């Protein structure tokens, strides 16, 4: 399934005409496991929201990466969307990400609700990511939280 932008997101993106380099992360257990960068449909969500996916696994499953590799792609925005966690759990993990990648804007998103499960709510995920990338054009989503904007 591919997420398609809603009319509101599409209109906002036409108005803006800009993109940002974005990485989505699933740092489920940061102490024990490697970081996972988004794959499957997540790069499509980022692109539909007006971002440019960097360091992601295009056309394949989400996959492991390292802090060094993440810093090397120099993302402007990091969206932490861990599988199995709501917004509070994502926010806790995003704090660690913000410490490890100090030059990026870091956001937590309720990945379970809008990113990691295929279905109609993927469109909500596109809108939420667009609200992160284009503040002031789209209203903020209640399922996102800024750790360092």
UniProtKB/TrEMBL annotation:
PANTHER family tied to this protein: VITAMIN B12-BINDING PROTEIN
Protein name, UniProt field: Fe/B12 periplasmic-binding domain-containing protein
Organism field: Aeromicrobium halocynthiae
